[in-house]
Design goal:
The complex is a heterotrimer. Chain A folds into two domains: about 170 residues, D-Maltodextrin-Binding Protein, domain 2; about 190 residues, 3-Layer(aba) Sandwich (D-Maltodextrin-Binding Protein, domain 2). Chain A has 17 helices and 14 strands. Chain A is α/β, with parallel strands linked by helices. The longest helix of chain A is centred in the first third of the chain and has 28 residues. In chain A, helix 2 runs antiparallel to helix 13, helix 8 packs across helix 9 and helix 16 runs antiparallel to helix 17. Chain B folds into two domains: about 25 residues; about 270 residues, MetI-like (MetI-like fold). The longest helix of chain B is centred in the first third of the chain and has 37 residues. Chain C is an all-alpha fold. Helix content of chain C is about 70%, strand content about 0%. The chains are: A alpha/beta, B mainly alpha, C mainly alpha. At the B-C interface, helix 1, helix 3, helix 4, helix 5 and helix 6 of B face helix 2, helix 3, helix 5, helix 6 and helix 7 of C.
C-alpha cells in the first residue's frame, strides 16, 4: 500500500468518524442530564409520577393506564405507567441506581427486604380507607407494627373446569369434587384423547394448595413446618397422580402456565387464580369454564391467596400525590373496574357484595378467602420458595420427604 | 522519493525530529487508558470492595454506613451451609459438566470440520467455510430463541427423533441428569450411601455425578453449534501452515493416513490446539447470555451457572456482596484452569528413551530439546 | 456478546493479506475419486445441519402459532401469514429497539475505529516512557473475564451518573483492548520509511498518523469495523446492567425479554422467531459482504 491510494476518500470517511466521536463526547455531557441525580434524600420532584407494574397481560395494562389517566385529569398531576418485563429485577436495579419508580407493585416477600434497607415509605397508616381493607391483607403488609403499603387486590386459587369437556365425559354438577379421592377419579375420567385431567404449575404457588388441604403449610404460627407429616402426605398424593397420568405440570403438557393449558385444551381442569378470567377472555374466548372451590383434603378445605400492594419509594419526591393516587386506585369503583377487566377481587371489604353480585359465577374465589393461606413473606422467603419450586419440578421422581426436609432447613434459617 | 536512511530512534523526547513524541504517545493512548481504566480497572476494584462489605444496594457503596465484613460473603457462599452455598455448588456443578462436555466436543468437531474442508477442492471450500461459520456470527440471544423453538416439546428435534422411534424429552423443562438417566436405564436408581450422604458445597456427591441435565444438554449442543465455526477457521489456518514436505517424508517412510494424522499433523497443530482449548475454557466458564435469555437457571436450577448466579444474587435477591464474591471466585477458577492447561500442554524436553529411538546405532546421543513432532 | 467474540478471540483476527491456497495435487485414481465423493457427501450433510435451523426460523416466522407447534420442520408455511411481523412492528416496541441498536452500534464502531487506531499507532511507533506498562496493562485487562465486570460496571456507571442513558450504553464500549492489538500489529507491519519521509518533511506526529499512516491501514480498519459492528450489535449483558427504561432497550435486550415471555403470552414462537430473524439480518449482511475478509482475518494469526 503506497501513498497512491485515494487518500481523499479515506480522509473523508475518517473525518466522519471523528465527527461521530465528538458527537459521543457531546452525548456524555448530555448523558448526566437524562437521569435524575442519584443518591439519598428526596429526588427532585418533577411532579410526574412514574408507576411500574408487572402486568398479567394487555387487559391489565390497559385498565391500569386508563385509571391512572383518569386520575391525572382529575388531579392535574401527570403520571406514566410502565409495564415491567421482570418486575423484581427492574425494581432492584432501580433502587440500587437510586432512580426507582414512584409507585410499583410490591409482592409480600419483597416487602421485607426493601423495608429493611429503607427503600420504601410506610404510608399505610395515613390512608383514609385503612380500616376497610381485609385484616389478613393488612397483616401481610405490616412489619413491626407499621402498615407499609395498601393492598391493591387479592386472589385465591380455585378449580377451573372446562365445561364442554366436563359434560362430554358424562359428568354433571353433582360430580364436582369435594374430596381428594373424588378429584383423583374425576381427573382420571377426564384424561383422554391426549389431554390430561388436571394441570397446574410446578411451583409452591399451586402445589401449596394441596399442602394447605392436608392441614400443613410452609410456615405455621411463625414456625417453619415444611417437613410436617401433612405436607408429606400432600406431596405424595400429588406425586402419585403425576405418575399415573391424571395430573400433570403445565410445562409437561407444553403450556407456559395453567391458563394456557386450559385454553389450548391440553388439560380439562386447572388450578389457577382470579387472573385467569382476564386471560381467558382475551386469549381463549371460545373456551367455556366454571369456577369451583378446591376439594378438601385430610385437613379440611385449603387454598392459597395472593396479593400485591402499591409500594411507594422512600426517595420519591411526589409522596403526597402518590398517596392520593393510591387512595383513588383502591376505591370501590376503581377496584370493581379492575376486577371486571382482569379478574382479581377487591381488597376492601365494602366492595365484597358488589363484587359478588357482578361476578356470580366466580364466588368460589371469594369463598376461598375464608380458609386461604398466604405464602411465607419474611426476608429471604422468595429465595426459599424459588428453591422449593426448583425441587418440585422433579417431584415425579423425587422423594417428598427429602424435598421437604431441604425446604425446612432453608426456612429455619430465615424464620426467627 | 529520496533515499534516506531512517534516523536512529531515540527513547524519550529531545530536540530535533523526535520532539513531542512522548507527549503524542501519551495523548494518543489517553482515550484508551481512560476508558479502560474507568470501565474495567475501577469496576474490578470496586467489586472487590463490595465483596468485602455489607452494602445492601442503596446509595453509594463507599458511603460511611457501609461496613467491612471481611470474608463473610465468601464464607456464606462456600461454607455457609445454607441456600447460598447450595446454589453456588449447584451452579459450579452445572458449569463444570458444561465445560467438560463442550470443550472436547467443540475442539474435536472443529478439527474434524477443518480437516474435511481443507481437503475439499478449492471451489467448494468457500461455501462450506461460510456455512459452518455462519452460526458464530449471530447473536447468542437470537440463537437461544431459535433453540427454544427447535427443542420445545413439540419442536423439530423431537419430530426428527420420532422418525427414529425415540420419544424425545421435553428438553428445556427436564431437570433430570443425563448420567442419572443412563444409570437408571441399567437399573441403578439411587446412589450408594457413601455418595448420597456426603456433600461438597451443599450438593451431595451423588448429585455432583448426575451429569448435565437434559436442559443443559440442549445448551451444550447449542454451544458446540455456534463455536465450532470459529475454531474451525483457526484449525484451517494451522493446517495450511504445515508444510507439505513433512507429510511426504512420513508417507515415504510408510505411514498410513491415520498415523500421519496422529503423529505428524496433530503435534504440529499444538499451538492452535492450545489456543482453541484456552479460548474454550475461558468462554465456557462465563456462559450467561444464553441462560438469561432462555431458562433463567431453571428447570430445577439445573442450568444455573456461576455467572448467572452472580447476576441474580446481586440484581434479583439484592445480595450484592455475595454476588461480587461469586464473580471473584469464578475469576480465580478461570485463571487457575488456564494456568493448569498451560502447564499440561507445555513443551517438555524429549525423554531419553525417545532420543535413543532416533539415534543411529552406535552414534553418540544428539542433544534434542525440541518437543515430539515437527518444528513449530 | 456473540458466542465467540471474546476479546481473546478477536486478538487472533490479525490482519493478513489473503492467503493463497495450495491445493495438494491429487492423482485422481478411482479410489481417490471415491474418497472425494464420500468427503463431499459428508460435507454437504453437515452443511445442511448447520443451515437448516436458520431456514426453519425464517419459515416459521411466517406460520401461525398453531401451525408452528403442529408442524415444526416443514419449510412451507401453510397458511402463509404476516401476522407475526404485524404484531412485531405494530404492537410492540420493536422499532424502538432497532433504532437504539443502530444508534449504539454506529457510535461504538466509529469510536473504536478512531481510538483503537490512535492507541495502536502509539504503541507501535511512538517511543514514550511507560509504553511497556501500557502494553502489559492492556494484556492484563484482556484477561479479566466479562462475568466479573457485570456488577461492578453497573456500580461505576451509576456513580458516574450516566446510568440509564445513551452515554452509559456507549461509553464503556468505546474501546476494546483486542482492537488496539489488531491495529498495533498492523502498524508494525508497515515499513517505517514512509513515516520517516513525512517526518523529515516536517509533519507533526498527529499529521503523520492522520494523513500518512491511517489511509494505509484500510484493511485493518475494515476488520475493526466488522468486529465492532458484530460485537456491539450482539451485546447483551452490558445493556442489561446499564439501562432500565423501555425507551433505551436495544434489540438484544428486547428479544431476550420476548423470549422469557410473560404470563398470558404463551408460546408465540412465530413472533419470537421473527424478531430473532430480523435481528440477525444486519450482521448476516455484513458477514456475507465481508466474509472473505472476516474468515481470512480470523484464520490469520495463531498467537504463539
Amino acid at each position: 500500500m503506497t501513498r497512491h491510494t485515494p487518500i481523499r476518500r479515506a480522509r473523508g470517511w475518517l473525518g466522519a468518524a471523528a465527527l461521530l466521536t465528538t458527537g459521543v463526547l457531546a452525548l456524555t455531557a448530555c448523558g448526566s442530564g437524562f437521569t435524575d441525580s442519584p443518591g439519598e434524600g428526596q429526588a427532585s420532584g418533577s411532579g410526574k409520577l412514574s408507576i411500574l407494574i408487572g402486568s398479567s397481560g394487555d387487559a391489565e395494562t390497559k385498565a391500569v393506564t386508563d385509571a391512572v389517566a383518569a386520575w391525572s385529569e382529575k388531579s392535574g398531576v401527570p403520571a406514566e405507567v410502565q409495564t415491567a418485563n421482570d418486575l423484581p429485577q427492574q425494581l432492584s436495579q432501580g433502587f440500587a441506581a437510586g432512580s426507582p419508580p414512584d409507585l410499583f407493585y410490591l409482592a409480600p416477600e419483597a416487602l421485607a427486604g426493601y423495608a429493611s434497607n429503607g427503600s420504601i415509605a410506610a404510608y399505610g397508616d395515613d390512608l383514609e380507607n385503612k380500616s376497610d381493607f381485609y385484616p389478613s391483607l393488612v397483616d401481610n403488609f405490616t412489619i413491626d407494627g407499621k402498615f407499609f403499603c395498601a393492598p391493591k387486590d387479592f386472589s385465591t386459587l380455585a378449580l377451573i373446569i372446562n365445561t364442554d369437556l366436563w359434560s362430554a365425559a358424562g359428568l354433571t354438577d353433582a360430580d364436582i369434587p369435594t374430596t381428594w379421592d373424588q378429584l383423583a377419579s374425576v381427573a382420571q375420567k377426564l384424561t383422554a384423547d391426549g389431554r390430561v385431567g388436571l394441570a397446574f404449575g410446578a411451583e409452591y404457588q399451586r402445589v401449596g394448595a394441596f399442602m394447605a388441604q392436608a392441614g400443613g403449610g410452609l410456615v405455621t404460627d411463625g414456625k417453619a413446618t415444611a417437613d410436617s407429616a401433612a405436607n408429606v402426605e400432600a406431596l405424595t398424593y400429588v406425586k402419585t397422580h403425576l405418575n399415573d397420568g391424571s395430573f400433570a405440570f403445565a410445562s409437561d403438557v407444553g403450556a407456559g402456565w395453567g391458563g394456557e393449558a386450559l385454553g389450548t385444551q391440553k388439560a380439562a381442569m386447572v388450578i389457577e387464580g382470579n387472573w385467569i378470567t382476564g386471560a381467558m377472555k382475551a386469549d381463549y374466548p371460545d373456551v367455556k369454564y366454571t369456577v369451583a372451590e378446591l376439594p378438601a383434603g385430610p385437613g379440611g378445605k385449603g387454598t392459597l391467596q395472593f396479593t400485591n400492594c402499591w409500594g411507594l419509594a422512600a426517595d420519591s419526591g411526589n409522596q403526597e400525590q402518590a398517596r392520593d393516587l393510591v387512595q383513588y386506585l383502591t376505591s370501590t369503583d376503581q377496584q370493581l373496574a379492575f376486577s371486571k377487566a382482569f379478574g382479581p377481587m377487591p381488597s376492601i371489604q365494602s366492595a365484597a357484595d358488589a363484587w359478588s353480585q357482578a361476578n356470580p359465577d366466580q364466588t368460589a374465589f371469594l369463598a376461598g378467602a375464608a380458609y386461604a393461606q398466604f405464602p411465607p413473606n419474611m426476608a429471604g422467603a422468595a429465595d426459599v420458595i424459588t428453591d422449593f419450586n426448583a425441587q418440585l419440578e422433579s417431584l415425579k421422581t423425587g422423594d417428598p420427604q427429602a424435598l421437604l426436609k431441604t425446604a425446612q432447613s432453608n426456612l429455619e434459617a430465615i424464620v426467627k | 522519493m529520496s533515499a534516506l536512511s531512517p534516523a536512529p530512534r531515540r527513547a524519550g523526547s529531545s530536540s530535533g525530529i523526535r520532539r513531542g513524541e512522548a507527549a503524542a504517545g501519551w495523548l494518543f493512548t489517553a482515550p484508551v487508558l481512560i476508558i479502560l481504566g474507568v470501565f474495567l480497572l475501577v469496576p474490578v476494584l470496586m467489586a472487590l470492595w463490595v465483596s468485602f462489605s455489607d452494602w445492601t444496594g442503596r446509595g453509594s457503596p463507599f458511603s460511611s454506613n457501609v461496613g467491612f465484613v471481611g470474608l463473610d460473603n465468601y464464607a456464606a457462599v462456600t461454607t455457609g451451609g445454607g441456600l447460598a452455598e447450595r446454589d453456588f455448588g449447584t451452579a459450579l456443578r452445572n458449569n463444570a459438566w458444561y465445560v467438560l462436555l463442550v470443550v472436547p466436543l467443540q475442539t474435536a468437531l472443529s478439527l474434524f470440520l477443518a480437516v474435511l474442508v481443507n481437503r475439499a477442492i478449492l471451489r467448494g471450500r468457500g461455501f462450506f467455510r461460510t456455512a459452518f461459520y455462519f452460526p458464530s456470527v449471530t447473536s447468542s440471544v437470537a440463537i437461544t430463541v431459535l433453540w427454544l423453538f427447535l427443542f420445545s416439546s413439540s419442536g423439530a428435534i423431537n419430530e426428527v427423533l420420532s422418525w427414529l422411534g425415540v420419544n424425545g424429552p421435553n428438553w428445556f423443562s427436564d431437570p433430570s441428569g443425563v448420567v442419572h438417566n443412563l444409570l437408571g436405564a441399567v437399573g441403578v436408581t439411587s446412589g450408594p450411601a457413601m455418595l448420597t450422604d456426603h456433600t461438597l458445597l451443599g450438593v451431595s456427591w451423588w448429585d455432583w455425578l448426575a451429569g448435565p441435565s437434559v436442559a443443559m444438554s440442549a445448551f451444550i449442543l447449542m454451544a458446540v453449534f455456534t463455536t465450532s465455526g470459529t475454531f474451525m477457521l483457526l484449525f484451517i489456518a494451522g493446517l495450511q501452515n504445515i508444510g507439505g514436505d513433512v507429510q511426504e517424508a512420513a508417507m515415504m517412510d510408510g505411514a498410513n493416513g491415520w498415523q500421519r494424522f496422529w503423529r505428524v499433523t496433530l503435534p504440529q497443530l499444538k499451538p492452535v490446539l492450545f489456543t482453541v482449548l484456552t479460548l474454550g475454557l475461558i468462554g465456557t466458564w462465563q456462559v450467561f447470555d444464553q441462560i438469561y435469555t432462555g431458562t433463567q437457571g431453571g428447570p430445577g436450577k439445573t442450568t444455573l451457572t456461576p455467572a448467572y448466579l452472580s447476576y441474580s444474587s446481586a440484581f434479583l435477591s439484592q445480595q450484592w456482596g455475595q454476588g461480587a464474591a461469586i464473580a471473584f471466585v469464578l475469576f480465580v477458577i478461570i485463571v487457575a484452569l488456564t494456568i493448569l492447561q498451560r502447564f499440561v500442554l507445555r513443551d517438555r524436553p524429549v525423554s531419553r528413551r525417545r532420543i535413543r529411538q532416533y539415534e543411529a546405532p552406535g552414534a553418540g546421543t544428539p542433544r534434542l530439546r525440541r518437543s515430539k513432532g515437527g518444528t513449530r | 456478546m456473540t458466542a465467540t467474540a471474546s476479546p481473546q478471540a478477536t486478538v487472533l483476527a490479525e490482519q493478513r493479506l489473503d492467503r493463497p491456497t495450495h491445493p495438494a495435487k491429487h492423482r485422481l485414481s478411482r479410489k481417490a475419486l471415491g474418497w472425494q465423493i464420500g468427503l463431499y457427501a459428508l460435507l454437504i450433510v453437515l452443511a445442511l445441519v448447520y443451515i437448516y435451523p436458520f431456514l426453519v426460523q425464517v419459515a416459521t416466522s411466517f406460520k401461525t402459532d398453531a401451525a408452528a407447534a403442529a408442524d415444526p420442520i416443514s419449510l412451507t408455511p401453510q397458511p402463509f401469514t404476516w401476522a407475526a411481523y404485524e404484531r412485531l412492528f405494530l404492537n410492540s416496541d420493536f422499532p424502538v429497539w432497532f433504532g437504539n441498536s443502530v444508534v449504539v452500534t454506529v457510535f461504538v464502531t466509529a469510536g473504536r475505529v478512531f481510538f483503537n487506531s490512535l492507541a495502536g499507532y502509539a504503541l507501535a511507533r511512538l517511543q514514550f516512557r511507560g509504553r511497556g506498562i501500557v502494553f502489559a496493562g492492556l494484556i492484563a485487562v484482556m484477561a479479566v473475564p466479562t462475568v466479573v465486570l457485570l456488577i461492578p460496571k453497573f456500580l461505576v456507571i451509576n456513580q458516574l451518573g450516566i446510568y440509564d442513558s445513551y452515554a452509559g450504553m456507549i461509553l464503556p464500549l468505546l474501546v476494546d483492548a483486542a482492537g488496539v492489538f489488531i491495529m498495533k500489529n498492523f502498524f508494525e507491519s508497515i515499513p517505517p520509511s514512509v513515516e520517516e519521509q513525512a517526518r523529515i518533511d516536517g509533519a507533526g506526529t498527529f499529521r503523520i498518523f492522520w494523513s500518512v499512516v491511517l489511509p494505509m491501514a484500510r484493511p485493518a480498519l475494515i476488520t475493526i469495523v466488522i468486529l465492532s459492528f458484530q460485537g456491539s450489535w450482539n451485546e447483551l449483558s452490558h445493556f442489561v446492567i446499564s439501562t432500565q427504561s423501555p425507551e433505551l432497550t436495544t434489540l438484544t435486550k428486547g428479544v431476550a425479554s420476548l423470549a422469557s415471555g410473560q404470563l398470558s403470552q404463551g408460546s408465540q414462537f412465530p413472533l419470537k422467531l421473527a424478531a430473532a430473524a430480523i435481528m440477525t439480518i444486519p450482521v448476516a449482511v455484513v458477514f456475507f459482504i465481508f466474509q472473505r475478509r472476516i474468515m481470512n482475518a480470523s484464520e490469520g494469526a495463531v498467537k504463539e
